[in-house]
Structures are given as C-alpha cells and as structure tokens.
Fold this sequence. Notes:
8 helices, 3-stranded antiparallel sheet, mainly alpha
Amino acid sequence: MQLNVGKVGGNAGKTVPEYGYPYRQSTVSAALVYLVGYTSNLVLILTVEWLVVFVYWKAPRGSRCVRGLLYKSSFFFYSLVASSLPFMFGGIMSMSITDVGKFTVGRLRPHFISVCQPNWNYVNCSSGYVINDVCTGDPTTIRDGRLSFPSGHSSLAFYVSTFMVLYLHKRASPVIRPARLIIPIINLIALILALFTALSRISDNKHHPTDVLAGSLIGIGSACYANYLLPQFRQLDKLDSTSVETETDNEED
C-alpha cells in the first residue's frame, strides 16, 4: 500500500492525510440503484412495446380476429426481446468496464484511513509515503477501500437513466403521440436521480470527483452504444416503419 500524505484544502502549516475523511454510510445503496434502475427500465420497455404493438400498430391487411391477435402477439414478443437484450447487454458492458477500472487502477477511497485503522507506531512519513501494510481494520472493508476508481454507483445510475432517456426518445416519441407531454418529465426525473446518486458518492466520502466523472461517462457511453449500435434496434425501426406505412394505407382506403 502506498499512502500519500499531503496538505488538503490549502491549509498552510496543517498537514492531514489525503484519504483521511470519516467513513459514512451510503445515502443511496447499490442494491437500491440496481432494483430501481433495472426494474423501472424493464417495466418501461414492457409498457412501451405493448402500447406500440397493441394500441398504435395495426396488423397487415387480411389479419382478422384470432389471426391478427396472434400476429400482434408474435411481433410484441419479438419487439420486447429485441428491446430488452440491448438494455441487459449495455448493463453488463457498463459493469465490466467499471470493474476493469477498479481492479487495474483502483485508487484509495477518501475514507480509506478510517477503514484501514493503521498502526501509527509503524508509520514513517519522512519520505511522504507509507509503503508497508500497516492496516489493522477488517480485510474486506480495506479491500473495498482500494476500489475507488471509477465509481460503480455513478456508472450504473447514469447508464439506467441515459438508456431510459434515449429509449423513450427512440421508441415512444415517434409513435405514441400523447406520451410526448410525459416523456420530458420522465427524462428530467431520471437524470436528476442519476445526478443525485453520483453526487452523494462524493458527499458520503466514498469517491473522489474524478471517480464519479469517469463512472458517469462509462454509464452514458454504454447506454449510447446499447441504443444506437446494436442491430436489434435497427431491425425494430425497419419493422415499425413498415407498420406505419400499413396504417397509412388503411386510413387512405
């Protein structure tokens, strides 16, 4: 372990540990972010795809009663799977990139000394660094205290919120006209919650600002990839454009 000891906050003549902030419980737990983020998106996908297929979209000509219902049901299943898979893949990608950063770069958390509980009798700060392992705290907590960069909470929060914003813009806005009044409100709430989660990691002394920034960018980038680059979405757009043409032809007749 290398522990840098320097001046914090520009306090002249007062030298304090750079990672000596007090340990605090998380304002937003990881379980809560996973539960709310993934559940809300999956419910949203289910709702939007059902509205698109069973309310907005019309089956091709000649499809009546049971046959038309089966046709719509099969298309609903396809659109549901094709929308859910990119979301799940993007979440895995965001978590994987975050974990690679944590276990390769790591970085000490701002509250590291609080969980390390060093034996100060073995600390020699004459060179400015503590190289030997002097921690006496819980090994699991100490290990987690070395995984500050990037922020997993931030990457997850911004992934689920950004995916929701882009998904609604891509799937709901063009086809469900009444939803256009609701979508901006949902998007604003999602982004505010993501920002609150990310900033709470700094106020809780869990991460440095650059950890949060890096995690947020990972989440946003993963969401953009899931929405714009995966072929399932392009196939859905092609099918939906065909359905729009079919509806237009029916109205003209």
